[in-house]
Amino acid sequence: MGYRSQVACCISVDTERKEDEQGSHYFDYDRDKFKQMIGFIKLSKFYELWTANESDKDAIGWGNGRFIMYGDGWKWYPDYEDVKEFHKMFDAMESIEGISGYFLRVGEESGDVDERQFGDDPCYDYFHHFTAMDFTGEAYLGRRDTDEEEQNAQDAGVAG
Q: Which domains, and CATH codes, for the chain?
């Protein structure tokens, strides 16, 4: 089956804090720059490859000044065409003023994490890695050396 990873990325147009007529604050972004950013992404070879291979565990979309993607179970090897094309696209975005980005790849092995970010607002609000545990010992929970049934079973096994 091979080695699989979870991958996620957010690329955003930097936001600016503004004030409306009532004195309330809100954040706004340059809509023209956002349209250009999405146009660039949609024209990239990466976008073509991603959408051709997309599964029900994958998501890609944009709105409110942000492009977000997520994939689960991807073979994210540096020599694969889709991975090369992603990095080309991400690197190109890094050179554009007013654009920020965050990329995270988490592999199957402990500590196998790749993280990249650029810009003033790298938009890592949507995903992060954490340490987790998969416990499969439920059948043993609640048993103790003093359990009468277990002790009788052990005694019967020893006696037999």
A: 5-135 (3.30.70)
DSSP-assigned states of every residue in 28-72: EE-HHHHHHHHHHHHHSHHHHHHHHH--TT-EEEEETTEEEEEEE
Gap between the Cα atoms of 90 and 131, Å rounded = 26
Are 126 and 68 a contacting pair, CB within 8 Å? Answer: yes
Alpha carbon distance 126, 103 (integer Å): 11
What is this structure's pTM? 0.74
Q: pLDDT digit string (tens) for 82-123?
A: 899 999 999 999 999 999 999 999 998 888 899 999 998 878
Bridge pairing between strands 15-19 and 5-13 = unpaired
